[in-house]
Amino acid sequence: TSLLEVRDLHKRYGETEVLKGVSLALERGQSKVVMGPSGTGKSTLLRCINHLNPPDAGTVLLDGEELTARNLNAMRQQIGFVFQDFNLFTHLRALDNVRIGPMKILGTDRKAATELAMTELDRVGLADKADSYPAELSGGQQQRVSIARALAMQPKVILFDEPTSALDPELTGEVVSVMKQLAADGMTMLVVSHELGFARSAADEIVFMDGGHIVEQGPPDRLFTAP
Ligand code: ADP
Ligand code: ADP
Protein backbone atom coordinates (compact mmCIF):
# COMPACT_ATOMS: atom_id res chain seq x y z
CA THR A 1 0.00 0.00 0.00
CA SER A 2 0.99 3.60 -0.59
CA LEU A 3 1.72 5.75 2.44
CA LEU A 4 -0.89 8.28 1.36
CA GLU A 5 -3.58 7.60 -1.16
CA VAL A 6 -6.19 10.10 -2.30
CA ARG A 7 -9.06 8.74 -4.36
CA ASP A 8 -11.45 10.84 -6.39
CA LEU A 9 -11.70 13.88 -4.11
CA HIS A 10 -14.48 16.34 -4.84
CA LYS A 11 -15.00 19.71 -3.20
CA ARG A 12 -17.28 22.60 -4.01
CA TYR A 13 -17.70 26.05 -2.48
CA GLY A 14 -21.24 27.13 -3.23
CA GLU A 15 -21.75 26.91 -6.97
CA THR A 16 -18.10 26.39 -7.74
CA GLU A 17 -16.67 22.92 -7.95
CA VAL A 18 -13.01 23.36 -7.00
CA LEU A 19 -11.88 19.71 -6.93
CA LYS A 20 -13.43 17.64 -9.69
CA GLY A 21 -12.16 14.20 -8.84
CA VAL A 22 -8.51 14.30 -7.78
CA SER A 23 -6.56 11.10 -7.16
CA LEU A 24 -2.92 10.68 -6.27
CA ALA A 25 -0.64 8.47 -4.23
CA LEU A 26 2.56 9.03 -2.30
CA GLU A 27 4.91 6.16 -1.59
CA ARG A 28 7.02 6.08 1.55
CA GLY A 29 9.83 8.61 1.30
CA GLN A 30 8.44 10.20 -1.82
CA SER A 31 8.20 13.96 -2.40
CA LYS A 32 5.67 15.37 -4.81
CA VAL A 33 5.21 19.00 -5.74
CA VAL A 34 1.80 20.24 -6.85
CA MET A 35 1.96 23.12 -9.33
CA GLY A 36 -0.57 24.93 -11.47
CA PRO A 37 -2.34 28.25 -11.94
CA SER A 38 -3.63 30.22 -8.98
CA GLY A 39 -7.20 29.37 -7.97
CA THR A 40 -7.03 25.87 -9.39
CA GLY A 41 -7.60 24.06 -6.11
CA LYS A 42 -4.08 23.16 -4.95
CA SER A 43 -4.51 24.52 -1.46
CA THR A 44 -8.01 23.05 -1.25
CA LEU A 45 -6.55 19.65 -2.15
CA LEU A 46 -4.12 19.80 0.78
CA ARG A 47 -6.86 20.95 3.16
CA CYS A 48 -9.16 18.19 2.03
CA ILE A 49 -6.45 15.57 2.58
CA ASN A 50 -6.34 16.22 6.33
CA HIS A 51 -9.99 17.31 6.46
CA LEU A 52 -9.15 20.89 7.52
CA ASN A 53 -11.81 21.40 4.85
CA PRO A 54 -13.78 18.17 4.67
CA PRO A 55 -14.13 16.86 1.11
CA ASP A 56 -17.65 16.41 -0.32
CA ALA A 57 -16.72 13.03 -1.72
CA GLY A 58 -13.71 10.82 -2.10
CA THR A 59 -11.38 8.88 0.13
CA VAL A 60 -8.10 9.57 1.89
CA LEU A 61 -6.09 6.58 3.09
CA LEU A 62 -3.03 6.82 5.31
CA ASP A 63 -1.03 3.61 5.40
CA GLY A 64 -4.13 1.86 4.07
CA GLU A 65 -6.45 3.23 6.75
CA GLU A 66 -9.29 5.51 5.68
CA LEU A 67 -9.73 8.88 7.39
CA THR A 68 -13.21 9.06 8.84
CA ALA A 69 -15.00 11.38 11.26
CA ARG A 70 -14.36 8.81 13.97
CA ASN A 71 -10.58 8.46 13.65
CA LEU A 72 -9.90 11.99 12.42
CA ASN A 73 -7.97 13.27 15.44
CA ALA A 74 -5.69 10.26 15.61
CA MET A 75 -5.10 10.30 11.87
CA ARG A 76 -4.45 14.04 11.73
CA GLN A 77 -1.64 13.72 14.26
CA GLN A 78 0.19 11.68 11.67
CA ILE A 79 -0.24 14.26 8.92
CA GLY A 80 1.94 17.34 9.43
CA PHE A 81 0.83 20.62 7.90
CA VAL A 82 3.00 23.64 7.15
CA PHE A 83 0.99 26.79 6.39
CA GLN A 84 1.89 29.63 4.09
CA ASP A 85 1.68 32.13 6.96
CA PHE A 86 3.37 29.91 9.61
CA ASN A 87 0.49 29.88 12.12
CA LEU A 88 2.79 29.99 15.13
CA PHE A 89 1.50 30.94 18.58
CA THR A 90 2.81 34.49 18.90
CA HIS A 91 2.82 34.43 22.71
CA LEU A 92 5.00 31.31 22.85
CA ARG A 93 8.76 30.97 22.36
CA ALA A 94 10.01 28.78 19.52
CA LEU A 95 10.71 25.94 21.96
CA ASP A 96 7.15 26.05 23.31
CA ASN A 97 5.64 26.25 19.84
CA VAL A 98 7.49 23.06 18.95
CA ARG A 99 6.95 21.05 22.13
CA ILE A 100 3.33 21.98 22.84
CA GLY A 101 2.00 19.44 20.32
CA PRO A 102 3.86 16.46 21.77
CA MET A 103 2.98 17.57 25.33
CA LYS A 104 -0.70 18.43 24.84
CA ILE A 105 -1.67 16.03 22.09
CA LEU A 106 0.63 13.03 22.46
CA GLY A 107 1.05 13.29 26.24
CA THR A 108 4.84 13.31 26.04
CA ASP A 109 6.34 14.42 29.36
CA ARG A 110 7.90 17.86 29.54
CA LYS A 111 11.52 16.70 29.63
CA ALA A 112 11.16 14.32 26.68
CA ALA A 113 9.13 16.88 24.71
CA THR A 114 11.82 19.49 25.35
CA GLU A 115 14.57 17.16 24.13
CA LEU A 116 12.51 16.30 21.06
CA ALA A 117 11.78 19.96 20.34
CA MET A 118 15.45 20.87 20.66
CA THR A 119 16.38 18.04 18.30
CA GLU A 120 13.90 19.28 15.69
CA LEU A 121 14.91 22.93 16.14
CA ASP A 122 18.50 21.82 15.62
CA ARG A 123 17.46 19.98 12.48
CA VAL A 124 16.12 23.22 10.99
CA GLY A 125 19.19 25.14 12.17
CA LEU A 126 17.48 27.07 14.96
CA ALA A 127 18.58 25.49 18.24
CA ASP A 128 20.03 28.86 19.22
CA LYS A 129 16.62 30.53 18.75
CA ALA A 130 14.71 28.22 21.12
CA ASP A 131 13.92 31.07 23.50
CA SER A 132 12.93 33.61 20.84
CA TYR A 133 9.35 34.65 20.23
CA PRO A 134 8.04 34.57 16.65
CA ALA A 135 8.12 38.38 16.40
CA GLU A 136 11.86 38.25 17.11
CA LEU A 137 12.46 35.90 14.17
CA SER A 138 12.61 36.53 10.43
CA GLY A 139 9.89 35.04 8.24
CA GLY A 140 12.28 32.33 7.10
CA GLN A 141 13.12 31.46 10.69
CA GLN A 142 9.43 31.41 11.65
CA GLN A 143 8.70 29.02 8.81
CA ARG A 144 11.59 26.79 9.93
CA VAL A 145 10.11 26.76 13.46
CA SER A 146 6.80 25.70 11.99
CA ILE A 147 8.55 22.87 10.12
CA ALA A 148 10.18 21.82 13.41
CA ARG A 149 6.74 21.93 15.03
CA ALA A 150 5.38 19.59 12.36
CA LEU A 151 8.39 17.26 12.73
CA ALA A 152 8.03 17.09 16.52
CA MET A 153 4.75 15.21 16.06
CA GLN A 154 6.69 12.49 14.19
CA PRO A 155 4.21 12.55 11.31
CA LYS A 156 4.12 9.97 8.54
CA VAL A 157 3.74 12.67 5.91
CA ILE A 158 3.98 16.46 5.85
CA LEU A 159 1.79 18.67 3.64
CA PHE A 160 3.32 22.04 2.75
CA ASP A 161 0.93 24.76 1.53
CA GLU A 162 3.01 27.36 -0.36
CA PRO A 163 5.61 27.42 2.41
CA THR A 164 7.74 30.16 0.85
CA SER A 165 5.19 32.43 -0.77
CA ALA A 166 4.82 34.73 2.23
CA LEU A 167 8.60 35.24 2.36
CA ASP A 168 10.85 37.86 0.84
CA PRO A 169 12.90 36.27 -1.95
CA GLU A 170 16.12 36.38 0.06
CA LEU A 171 14.52 34.26 2.79
CA THR A 172 13.09 31.48 0.63
CA GLY A 173 16.47 29.79 0.21
CA GLU A 174 16.83 28.82 3.86
CA VAL A 175 13.37 27.23 3.91
CA VAL A 176 13.92 25.45 0.60
CA SER A 177 17.21 24.04 1.84
CA VAL A 178 15.57 22.68 5.01
CA MET A 179 12.88 21.07 2.82
CA LYS A 180 15.49 19.57 0.50
CA GLN A 181 17.26 18.07 3.50
CA LEU A 182 13.99 16.55 4.74
CA ALA A 183 13.33 15.05 1.34
CA ALA A 184 16.88 13.64 1.28
CA ASP A 185 16.31 12.21 4.77
CA GLY A 186 13.34 10.25 3.41
CA MET A 187 10.42 12.30 4.72
CA THR A 188 7.24 11.77 2.72
CA MET A 189 6.14 15.21 1.51
CA LEU A 190 3.35 16.72 -0.56
CA VAL A 191 4.24 20.31 -1.39
CA VAL A 192 2.19 23.01 -3.09
CA SER A 193 4.82 25.43 -4.35
CA HIS A 194 5.96 27.51 -7.29
CA GLU A 195 9.56 27.02 -6.14
CA LEU A 196 11.26 25.58 -9.21
CA GLY A 197 14.51 25.02 -7.32
CA PHE A 198 12.86 22.63 -4.90
CA ALA A 199 10.72 21.02 -7.58
CA ARG A 200 13.69 20.35 -9.88
CA SER A 201 16.14 19.06 -7.34
CA ALA A 202 14.10 17.46 -4.56
CA ALA A 203 10.75 16.35 -5.96
CA ASP A 204 10.39 12.79 -7.15
CA GLU A 205 7.34 13.84 -9.12
CA ILE A 206 5.57 16.99 -10.22
CA VAL A 207 1.78 17.05 -10.27
CA PHE A 208 0.21 19.71 -12.49
CA MET A 209 -3.31 20.78 -11.60
CA ASP A 210 -5.59 22.91 -13.72
CA GLY A 211 -9.32 23.53 -13.42
CA GLY A 212 -9.75 21.17 -10.48
CA HIS A 213 -8.10 18.22 -12.23
CA ILE A 214 -4.64 16.71 -12.32
CA VAL A 215 -3.61 17.28 -15.93
CA GLU A 216 -0.07 15.92 -15.92
CA GLN A 217 2.16 14.03 -13.53
CA GLY A 218 5.72 12.80 -13.80
CA PRO A 219 9.36 13.17 -12.76
CA PRO A 220 10.79 16.71 -13.00
CA ASP A 221 13.40 15.83 -15.61
CA ARG A 222 10.64 14.71 -17.96
CA LEU A 223 8.24 17.59 -17.26
CA PHE A 224 10.77 20.42 -17.16
CA THR A 225 13.11 19.43 -19.96
CA ALA A 226 12.40 20.75 -23.42
CA PRO A 227 11.96 17.89 -25.89
P1 ADP B 1 -4.92 27.43 -5.37
O1 ADP B 1 -4.29 26.90 -4.12
O2 ADP B 1 -4.68 26.56 -6.57
O3 ADP B 1 -4.57 28.86 -5.66
P2 ADP B 1 -7.36 27.32 -3.84
O4 ADP B 1 -7.54 25.91 -3.49
O5 ADP B 1 -6.81 28.25 -2.82
O6 ADP B 1 -6.50 27.41 -5.18
O7 ADP B 1 -8.73 27.94 -4.32
C1 ADP B 1 -9.51 27.36 -5.36
C2 ADP B 1 -10.79 28.17 -5.54
O8 ADP B 1 -11.61 27.99 -4.41
C3 ADP B 1 -10.57 29.65 -5.67
O9 ADP B 1 -11.49 30.13 -6.61
C4 ADP B 1 -10.87 30.18 -4.31
O10 ADP B 1 -11.33 31.49 -4.36
C5 ADP B 1 -11.95 29.23 -3.83
N1 ADP B 1 -11.94 29.03 -2.37
C6 ADP B 1 -10.90 28.58 -1.63
N2 ADP B 1 -11.23 28.48 -0.33
C7 ADP B 1 -12.52 28.88 -0.25
C8 ADP B 1 -13.44 29.02 0.84
N3 ADP B 1 -13.11 28.69 2.09
N4 ADP B 1 -14.68 29.46 0.54
C9 ADP B 1 -15.04 29.78 -0.72
N5 ADP B 1 -14.22 29.68 -1.78
C10 ADP B 1 -12.97 29.25 -1.56
P1 ADP C 1 11.13 24.61 32.37
O1 ADP C 1 10.55 23.52 31.55
O2 ADP C 1 12.07 24.10 33.42
O3 ADP C 1 10.17 25.62 32.85
P2 ADP C 1 11.97 25.59 29.88
O4 ADP C 1 11.79 24.24 29.31
O5 ADP C 1 11.06 26.66 29.54
O6 ADP C 1 12.10 25.43 31.46
O7 ADP C 1 13.42 26.10 29.58
C1 ADP C 1 14.49 25.25 29.45
C2 ADP C 1 15.67 26.05 28.93
O8 ADP C 1 16.71 25.15 28.58
C3 ADP C 1 15.33 26.83 27.68
O9 ADP C 1 16.03 28.05 27.73
C4 ADP C 1 15.84 25.98 26.56
O10 ADP C 1 16.25 26.77 25.48
C5 ADP C 1 16.97 25.23 27.20
N1 ADP C 1 17.06 23.83 26.74
C6 ADP C 1 16.21 22.86 27.06
N2 ADP C 1 16.59 21.70 26.50
C7 ADP C 1 17.70 21.93 25.83
C8 ADP C 1 18.59 21.14 25.04
N3 ADP C 1 18.38 19.84 24.83
N4 ADP C 1 19.65 21.74 24.48
C9 ADP C 1 19.86 23.05 24.67
N5 ADP C 1 19.09 23.85 25.43
C10 ADP C 1 18.02 23.32 25.98
Describe this structure in words.
The chain is built from 8 helices and 10 strands. By secondary structure, the chain is of the alpha/beta class. Helix 6 (169-184) runs parallel beside helix 7. 44% of the residues are buried. The strands form 2 sheets. Strands 6-7-8-3-9-10 form a 6-stranded mixed sheet, with helices on both faces. The two termini are 34 Å apart. Strand 9 and strand 10 (213-218) form a beta hairpin. The structure holds adenosine-5'-diphosphate (2 copies). One adenosine-5'-diphosphate is lined by residues 13, 18, 38-44. One adenosine-5'-diphosphate binds next to helix 4.
Summarize the structure.
The protein contains 8 helices and 10 strands. The chain has helices at 42-49, 72-76, 94-106, 110-123, 139-152, 169-184, 196-202, 220-224; strands at 4-13, 16-26, 31-35, 57-62, 65-66, 79-82, 157-161, 188-192, 205-210, 213-218. The protein starts with a strand and ends with a helix.
